[in-house]
C-alpha cells in the first residue's frame, strides 16, 4: 500500500480534475446504456404495430441524440484524464531529478546512468499509462456495467434470466485475483531487465570509441545481445500470462452470450418474454463484455504499473547520505584557512582506511601542493573537503568552523574544484566556462578566465569563438583543451579556496608553466591547493605534502624536500631525467 501513496497523494491533489472526469465519463456511459433499451423498444414496436415513418424518425433521432451526447461527454472525460496522466509524468520526473541531485557520489558509484534513466523513462511512463488509460477505462467500465445492470432490472426482463446469463461474468474477479500478482511479479522482472539494457546501451555508446579502437565490436555485440535476450525471455513470460488473462475474459463473455441465446431464445419462443426483451438482453450482455475485458486490461496495466511504482518509491526512499545538520550555518565569507586534524577515513563498506592521521594547516592566502603515487588518497582528501563523502566530525575546519556544521551550499560555493576530467556539457564554450553562474557572469569574465587557463588563443581560432557548441561530452575539443576549459570554469568562480586536482596533466610543459605563473599572479592572497603528479606543477607551493598509502610521508617546501632523501627527491630525479631525455631526443 505504501507504494500507492505516491499515486494517491497525486490523485488527492488533483481531486477536482478526477471528479469532473468521473462526472463526464459517468454521464457518457449512462447515456450509452440507453442504447439497447431503445433498440429493444424499437423491436417490440416492429413486432406489434409494424414499422411507420414516424417510428423510424423518432428512434433514429433518439439514437443520434444518444450518440452525440455520449461522444461529447466521453471526449471531455478522456481529455481530462489524459491531461492528468501527463501531469503525473512530468511532476514525477522533476521529483526524481531533484532526488537524483541530492544523492551522493557513493550512490552513483553503485548505480549506472542507464539504470537511473530507466526510472525516468520506462517506470514513469508505465505509471502514467495506468493513470490515464487505466483510470479512463475503469471508470467507463464500472459505470457502464452498473448502468447496464440497472437498466436491465428496470426493464421487464425477468431477474432470474438476467442472473443466469450474467453468471459466467462473475468468474472474472476470480481470474483477476488469481493471475494479477503473477503478472505483477513478471512485470517487475521486465522492468529490471529493461533498466539493465538501458544501462548497458548507455555504457556501450559511451565507450564506442574505445570499442572501435580495440576492434572488439563482436564481443560488445554479444554482451549487449545477452541483455536483450534476458528482456525477451522476461517479456515472453509476461506475455504468456497476460495473454491467458486476456483470453479468459472474452471467453467468459462469449459463454454468457451463449446462455442468453439458449435460455432467452427459449423463453421468447414460449412468449414468456418479448422479442424486444430478448434483443435488449443480448445487447446489454454484449455491451458488458467489452468493459469487463477492459477491466482485465486495466488490471494488467495496473499490476505492471504497481511494479514500476514500487521501483520509483524505493528510489525516492533512498536517503541522501550527505545531509545538512539541523544547525548548519553558512561558512564565514572571508575564511580561507583550512585546518585538518587527525583525519582518518575509509570508504563506506570498505575495511581499509585510505587516509590515516592526516594533519595539515593551510594558512589563508597560501598554496599547498599535494603529490603522491596513484591511489595514495589525494582525491579522497579533496572529496572530504567538499563533503562529497562525510569526513569524521571535528577533523576539517575552514576558518573556525567545522565543515560538518556548514551549509553544503556555502561550502561548495566557497571552494572552486577543478577535477582532472571535468565533465563538459554539450552546450557552448561560454556556458561551460560560466557554469557556476551562467546567468550573471559577464562575457569579459569568461574571456579573462579563458586567458588565465591559456585557452583564449584556441577559442579565437574557432569560427564561432565562445559560442562554439561542444559535442556530446566536448568531443570536438582535444584532451588538453577540455582540461583547460574545465580550469577556466574553476578560475572564473573566484572562490576563496581553489583546488586543482591533477588539472594540468594533459597540457604540455610550456603551457603548464604559463598556467601556473598566471595562477600565482591571480591568486595572491587566496588559498590554493594543487594536486599533481608532476613536480613542476607544484614546486612553487608554500608547503608540499607527499602522500604515501594514505599517510603523510614527507612535508616541506620544494627546496627542503629536495634536500632530504625520500619519495619526493626520487620523483624529482626521475622527472628531471625524463625531461632531459625528451629535450635530447
Ligand atoms: N568510491 C570509492 N569507494 C571505495 N574506494 C575508493 C573509492 N574511490 C577511491 N577509492 C580507493 O581509495 C584509494 C585512494 O583513491 P584516490 O582517488 O584518493 O587516489 P589518488 O591519490 O587521487 O589517485 P590518482 O593519483 O590516481 O588520482 C584508492 O585505493 C581507490 O581505489
Automatic annotation (TrEMBL):
One Pfam entry name: ABC_tran
Domain called ABC transmembrane type-1: residue spans: 21-304
Gene3D superfamilies reported in the protein's UniProt record: ABC transporter type 1, transmembrane domain, P-loop containing nucleotide triphosphate hydrolases
GO terms, molecular function: ABC-type oligopeptide transporter activity; ATP binding; ATP hydrolysis activity
CDD domains, A to Z: ABC_6TM_TmrB_like
Domain ABC transporter residue range list: 338-574
InterPro entries per UniProt: AAA+_ATPase (IPR003593), ABC1_TM_dom (IPR011527), ABC1_TM_sf (IPR036640), ABC_transporter-like_ATP-bd (IPR003439), P-loop_NTPase (IPR027417), Type_1_exporter (IPR039421)
Keywords: ATP-binding, Cell membrane, Membrane, Nucleotide-binding, Transmembrane, Transmembrane helix, Transport
Protein's membrane topology: Multi-pass membrane protein
PANTHER family reported in the protein's UniProt record: ATP-BINDING CASSETTE SUB-FAMILY B MEMBER 10, MITOCHONDRIAL, ATP-DEPENDENT PERMEASE MDL1, MITOCHONDRIAL
Name recorded for this polypeptide: ABC transporter ATP-binding protein
Organism of derivation: Paenibacillus thalictri
Amino acid at each position: 500500500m505504501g507504494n500507492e501513496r505516491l499515486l494517491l497523494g497525486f490523485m488527492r491533489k488533483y481531486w477536482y480534475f478526477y471528479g469532473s472526469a468521473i462526472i463526464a465519463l459517468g454521464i457518457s456511459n449512462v447515456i450509452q446504456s440507453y442504447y439497447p433499451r431503445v433498440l429493444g423498444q424499437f423491436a417490440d414496436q416492429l413486432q406489434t404495430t409494424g414499422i411507420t415513418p414516424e417510428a423510424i424518425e423518432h428512434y433514429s433521432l433518439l439514437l443520434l441524440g444518444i450518440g452525440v451526447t455520449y461522444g461529447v461527454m466521453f471526449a471531455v472525460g478522456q481529455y481530462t484524464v489524459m491531461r492528468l496522466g501527463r501531469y503525473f509524468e512530468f511532476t514525477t520526473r522533476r521529483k526524481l531529478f531533484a532526488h537524483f541531485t541530492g544523492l551522493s557520489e557513493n550512490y552513483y558509484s553503485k548505480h549506472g546512468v542507464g539504470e537511473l534513466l530507466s526510472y525516468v523513462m520506462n517506470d514513469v511512463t508505465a505509471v502514467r499509462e495506468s493513470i490515464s488509460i487505466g483510470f479512463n477505462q475503469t471508470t467507463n467500465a464500472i459505470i457502464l456495467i452498473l448502468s447496464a445492470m440497472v437498466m436491465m432490472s428496470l426493464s421487464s426482463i425477468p431477474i432470474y434470466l438476467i442472473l443466469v446469463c450474467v453468471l459466467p461474468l462473475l468468474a472474472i474477479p476470480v481470474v483477476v485475483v488469481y493471475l494479477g500478482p503473477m503478472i505483477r511479479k513478471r512485470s517487475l522482472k521486465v522492468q529490471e531487465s529493461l533498466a539493465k539494457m538501458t544501462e548497458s546501451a548507455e555504457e556501450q555508446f559511451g565507450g564506442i570509441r574505445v570499442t572501435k579502437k580495440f576492434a572488439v565490436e563482436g564481443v560488445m555485440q554479444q554482451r549487449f545481445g545477452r541483455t536483450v535476450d534476458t528482456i525477451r525471455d522476461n517479456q515472453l513470460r509476461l506475455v504468456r500470462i497476460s495473454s491467458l488473462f486476456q483470453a479468459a475474459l472474452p471467453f467468459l463473455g462469449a459463454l454468457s452470450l451463449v446462455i442468453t441465446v439458449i435460455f432467452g431464445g427459449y423463453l421468447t419462443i414460449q412468449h414468456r418474454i418479448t422479442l424486444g426483451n430478448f434483443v435488449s438482453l443480448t445487447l446489454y450482455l454484449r455491451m458488458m463484455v467489452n468493459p469487463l475485458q477492459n477491466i482485465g486490461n486495466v488490471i494488467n496495466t495496473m499490476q505492471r504499473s504497481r511494479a514500476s511504482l514500487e521501483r520509483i518509491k524505493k528510489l525516492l526512499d533512498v536517503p541522501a547520505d550527505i545531509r545538512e545538520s539541523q544547525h548548519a550555518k553558512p561558512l564565514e565569507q572571508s575564511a580561507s584557512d583550512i585546518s585538518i586534524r587527525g583525519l582518518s577515513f575509509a570508504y563506506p563498506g570498505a575495511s581499509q582506511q585510505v587516509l590515516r592521521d592526516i594533519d595539515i594547516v593551510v594558512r589563508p592566502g597560501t598554496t599547498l601542493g599535494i603529490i603522491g603515487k596513484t591511489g595514495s588518497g589525494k582525491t579522497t582528501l579533496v572529496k572530504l573537503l567538499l563533503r562529497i563523502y562525510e569526513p569524521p566530525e571535528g577533523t576539517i575546519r575552514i576558518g573556525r568552523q567545522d565543515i560538518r556544521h556548514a551549509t553544503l551550499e556555502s561550502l561548495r560555493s566557497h571552494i572552486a574544484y577543478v577535477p582532472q576530467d571535468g565533465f563538459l556539457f554539450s552546450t557552448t564554450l561560454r556556458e561551460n566556462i560560466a557554469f557556476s553562474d551562467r546567468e550573471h557572469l559577464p562575457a569579459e569574465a569568461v574571456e579573462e578566465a579563458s586567458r588565465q587557463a591559456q585557452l583564449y588563443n584556441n577559442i579565437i581560432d574557432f569560427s564561432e569563438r565562445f559560442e562554439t557548441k561542444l559535442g556530446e561530452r566536448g568531443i570536438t575539443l582535444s584532451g588538453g583543451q577540455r582540461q583547460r576549459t574545465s580550469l577556466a570554469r574553476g578560475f572564473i568562480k573566484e572562490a576563496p579556496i581553489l583546488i586543482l586536482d591533477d588539472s594540468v596533466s594533459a597540457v604540455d610543459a610550456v603551457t603548464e608553466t604559463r598556467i601556473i605563473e598566471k595562477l600565482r599572479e591571480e591568486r595572491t592572497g587566496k588559498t590554493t591547493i594543487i594536486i599533481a603528479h608532476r613536480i613542476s606543477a607544484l614546486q612553487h607551493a608554500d608547503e608540499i605534502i607527499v602522500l604515501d598509502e594514505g599517510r603523510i610521508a614527507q612535508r616541506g617546501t620544494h627546496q627542503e624536500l629536495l634536500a632530504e632523501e625520500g619519495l619526493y627527491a626520487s620523483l624529482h630525479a626521475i622527472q628531471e631525467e625524463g625531461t632531459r631525455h625528451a629535450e635530447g631526443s
